[in-house]
Amino acid sequence: AALLQRFQERIDAEERIEPNDWMPEAYRRTLVRQISQHAHSEIIGMQPEGNWITRAPSLRRKAALLAKVQDECGHGLYLYAAAETLGVSREEMVDQLLAGKAKYSSIFNYPTLTWADIGAIGWLVDGAAIMNQIPLCRCSYGPYARAMIRVCKEESFHQRQGYEIMLTLCRGTAEQKEMAQDALNRWWWPCLMMFGPPDSASQHTDTSTRWKIKRFTNDELRRKFVDATVPQAHFLGLTVPDPELRFDEATGHWVHGAIDWDEFKQVVAGNGPCNTQRLERRRKTEEDGAWVREAARAFADKNSRRKAAVATAA
Amino acid sequence: AALLQRFQERIDAEERIEPNDWMPEAYRRTLVRQISQHAHSEIIGMQPEGNWITRAPSLRRKAALLAKVQDECGHGLYLYAAAETLGVSREEMVDQLLAGKAKYSSIFNYPTLTWADIGAIGWLVDGAAIMNQIPLCRCSYGPYARAMIRVCKEESFHQRQGYEIMLTLCRGTAEQKEMAQDALNRWWWPCLMMFGPPDSASQHTDTSTRWKIKRFTNDELRRKFVDATVPQAHFLGLTVPDPELRFDEATGHWVHGAIDWDEFKQVVAGNGPCNTQRLERRRKTEEDGAWVREAARAFADKNSRRKAAVATAA
Amino acid sequence: MTSIRVTETPLVTYVLRRADDALVLGHRLSEWCGKAPMMEEEMALANMGLDLIGQARALYTYAGEAEAAGHDEDALAYRRDERAYRNLLLVEQPNGDFAVTMVRQLLYAAYADPYWRAMMSSRDATLAAIAAKAEKEMAYHLRHSAEWVVRLGDGTPESHERTARALTMLWPYTGELFETDSVDDSLIEAGIAVDPASLRDTWRATVADVLGRATLTMPADGYMQKGGRSGRHSEHLGHLLTELQYMQRTIPGATW
Amino acid sequence: MTSIRVTETPLVTYVLRRADDALVLGHRLSEWCGKAPMMEEEMALANMGLDLIGQARALYTYAGEAEAAGHDEDALAYRRDERAYRNLLLVEQPNGDFAVTMVRQLLYAAYADPYWRAMMSSRDATLAAIAAKAEKEMAYHLRHSAEWVVRLGDGTPESHERTARALTMLWPYTGELFETDSVDDSLIEAGIAVDPASLRDTWRATVADVLGRATLTMPADGYMQKGGRSGRHSEHLGHLLTELQYMQRTIPGATW
C-alpha cells in the first residue's frame, strides 16, 4: 500500500515510470493490453493501404504509400518493443493476435475500395489516431511515451500527405472529386467511432485517467477531432455525410449527429466487412514465412556452434 | 511374318485397323507416341491462350476464348481415350508428360504477349495444326482417325475465329493494327517450324508413311500452309516477316526464306521461352488437385461399399 | 476518362445487378481455366463459366436497351467503376481452393435456380425469356456443385475439413441473396421482379439437403454481410475488375 | 487510346531500359508488402523497393528530358504498353517464395552494384549523378540479399532445397545482364555507357562467393533467355502492368 501510494505520488508529480520501477500489476496489465493493441493496429493497418500499393496512380504516390506502410510496420516494431519492457514477448503478443484473442483498431476492418480511400485514411484515420496519440506522448509510462513521440511525428506527416491526396482529387476531374466525396462518405462515421464508446458507456477510462495513461475522455477527443476536421472538409469542398452536423455558436464546437453504435459493436465483435480477411491474411503470412524463420534460426545455431568450436580449438 | 504381310495388305487396301486387330508392336508404339504427344499438346496448349481469358477485350471474345480453350481440353480427352485403346492409361501418359519425358508441340513454349496473339494463334497455329491433322482423318488406325475428324472440325472453326480477330484488329485503330503485325512477326517462323524438320533430316517419316499414319512429308505440309496463309496475310494488309518470301510463277507456290532450325532445336531441347513455366504450371495443377481426386476416390469407394452392404442385407 | 455514367432507373439497376452477378461469377470460374483438379472438371467449370457469361451478355444488352443511352454490353461490363458494380458479395469472393469454389457455386445456384424459374413468369417478356434459358443452366450448376459438395464433404478427412471451412467462410454472404430495397419493391409490385423472401425456404431446404448428404453442418445464421447491391464491395472486386477491364481502359472505344 | 509513343534515340532507349529494370523490380518487391516472413524483413523489402522506385523516377525523368517530347515519369511508366517495356526478363519473374525473391535480388544486385559504380564515371553528368546514389543503394541490396541467400542455403534442408530450386529457375535469365546491342555499342563508344562485358568477372566472383558460403552449387551456363531489352517479355510482365497501370488507363491525363 505504501508502494502504491508512492507510485501514485510519482504519477501525480508527472514523473515517468520506467521498466525497472515498481508498478501495480493492474497498471502493467492495462499498459500491456493498450500497447499491444496499438502495435497490432499498426500491423493490421498495413493491409487496407497495402491493397493499393501495386495500383497507386503515380510513381510519387506509389513511393509515398510504400514508405507509409513501411512506417506503420516500424511503429508496430517500436510498440512491441515498448510492451516487451513490461515482460511480455513479441511472440506471445502476436500469438494472441493470430488466435483472435487480442484486439486491434476496428477501423482497419473496413475495405479500401478506391484510390481516394488512401487519401481518406491518411487524412481521417491518421488524423483521429493523432488526436488519440498526442496525449500519450505524456503518458506516465516512459517507454510508451517515448515511442509515441516518434510515432506521432510520423503520423502527422502521413496525415498531411493524406490531406494532400484529397486536395489533389478535389482540385482534379469531376470523377476524382466524386471519388473523394465517396471516400469521405464511407470513412467519416467509422472514424468518429475510433474514439471508442461515449463516456457514459466507457469502461477503462477511470483508472487509466488516474494513472495518466489516458488524459482525455473518448468524447473530448472525438470533439477535438470533429472541430479540427469539419473545416478541412469544407476547405476541400466536400460535404460531411451528417445532415445533423451544426456549429454551436455558444460553445464554439461542431456538434455531430447520433453515431450508430450498433455498427461499432458488430465490427468489434468480428462482423466488420474485413475482420476475417485481415486475420486470415496475417495468419497466412505467418504460416508462409515459417520456413524462413526456421532457416534463420538453424543458421544462427550452426554459426554459434561453429564459433564455439573455433574458440575451443584456440 | 504372315501376320505382318496381312497387316500391310489391309493398310494398302485403306482398311481401318481397330483396337482388337493384330498390329506390329512398332506400329502400336509409333501411334501411342504420336497420339499422346498430340493429346499433351492440346492440354499444354490451353495455357498460352488461357493467359488472356481474364483480360479478353469484349464479352463476346471472352466467351469464345473460354469455349475454345475448353474445346482443347476436350480434344485432349478424346485423344487420350484413343491412345488408351492401344493399352496405355491416361495416368501413365500424364505422368510421362509431368516427368518431362513426353513431348508436346513446341509452339506452346512461346508466350502470348498481347491480345493479338490470341488472333495469331487461332489463325496460324490452328491453321498449321489443321494442315497436319486433315490427313490424319484418314489415318490407318480407326480410333485415331475418328478422333481427328471431330478435332479437325472444331479446329477449323477456331482457325476462322482467329482470322476474324486478326481482321477486326487490322480494320481497327492504328494501335490495333500494329498489335496484329507484331503478333504475325513473332508467330510466323515458329509456325513454319511446327511441321517439323525438313524432309532431308526427318526420322519417322518412312515407316509412318508406309503404315499410312502419315500421308505427306513435313516439307509438303509446310508448303501447303505457306500457300494458304500468305494470301490471307496480304488480305489483312500485313507483311509476312520474311524478306526472301517470293511467289514462284513456275511452280505456283510461295517460297519462303531459310528457317532458323537452331531456334527449333533449342525449344525442343527445353530452352524455349516458356518450357519450364508450362510444365511447372501443369505440375502445380496436378499437385493442387490431388486432394480433390483423392476425395472423389474415397467417396466412390465408400459408396460402393454402402451399395454392397445394402445388396448383402437384401 | 474512360468510365461511363449510367442513368439507373429501377429496371436498369435491377437488371444490372443480375448481370453483374453473372459476369463476376463467370469471370471467377474462368480463372480456373488450366487449373482444375481433373480434365473432366476443367470442362465443367468452363461450361458453367460460359453459361454465366452468356447470361451476363443478355442482361447487359437488356439493361442498355432499358437505359436507352447507347451503352452496349461491353460498355456496361468494361467501363463502369467498382463502385458502380452491383453484384452480390458472395460471387466476388476469391476462388480459394476447389472446395470454396464449389460451395460458392452451390450457395448461389441453390438461389438462382428457383429465382430464374420464378422469373419465367415475369411480366417483363425479355426477362422471362432470359429466365427460361438461365433456369435450365442453373439447374445444372446446382446439380453439379451439389454432387461435388457431397463428394468432398463425405470424402477424406482433409476434403471434409476444407469444405467445412469454405462453408463457414462463405455463409455470412448468403444473407444478401434475400435483401431487398426500394428498387426491388417497385418491380415486385409491378410483377416484373420476384420477391426473394418467397425463395428462402426452397433455398434453405436445398442447401440443408446437400449439406446433410455431405455430412456437413449448416452454419447458424449469424451477422450477415451486405453492400454489394449498392456498390460497397470487398477489396477483392477491384482486383478482378483491374484484369477484366484493362484492355478496354487502354484502348477505349475500339472494336474487338 | 491511352498509350504514348516514345521516340527512342539510343540514349532514350538506354535510360528507359534501366528505368524499367528499376521500376519492375521495385514493383515486385512492393508486392511483398504485408507478406514478409518477419517484420524486420518487411522493412528491408520496402526499403529496397523504395530505392528502386526512386531510381526509376530519376531515370524516367531523364529519359523524358532526353526525348524532349513532354513525357514525364508517369507518362513513361504508366502509359507504355508491354511491348515497349525494355526491362530484363530476370526482374519481371514472379516473387515466388522468399528464396526466389532473394536469389533474384542477389543476381541483380551483384550486377547492378558494380554497374552503377562504373557508371559514376559516365561522361553523361546526369547518369553519373544517378549512379552515385544508386551504387550505394545497390551495395546494400547486395549485402542484404547475400546474407539471406547464405542463411537460407546453409539453413534447413527445406530452405536449402528451395534456394537451390530458385537458383536453377532464375539462372537462365542471367545471360541477358551482359547482352549488348547497337544501342549499347554507340553509347559505350561515347563514354556514356559501361561495357557490361567488363563486369562479368566481378559478377561471377561475387555470386560464386555467396553461393559457396551458402553451400549451393553454381549452375552451369546453359542456354540463356533473352528478349526483355527489345520488349519480348515473359507472360508475367503483362499481368504486372495491368495492375500497375490500371488507374492511369482509367482516368488518363489526370493529376494525382
From TrEMBL, chains C, D:
A Pfam family name for this chain? PaaA_PaaC
Gene Ontology cellular-component terms listed? cytosol
Gene Ontology biological-process entries: phenylacetate catabolic process
PANTHER family, A to Z? 1,2-PHENYLACETYL-COA EPOXIDASE, SUBUNIT C (PTHR30458:SF0), PHENYLACETIC ACID DEGRADATION PROTEIN PAA (PTHR30458)
Supply the name of the protein. Answer: 1,2-phenylacetyl-CoA epoxidase, subunit C
Q: Which organism is it from?
A: Rhodoplanes serenus
| Classification of source organism | Bacteria, Pseudomonadati, Pseudomonadota, Alphaproteobacteria, Hyphomicrobiales
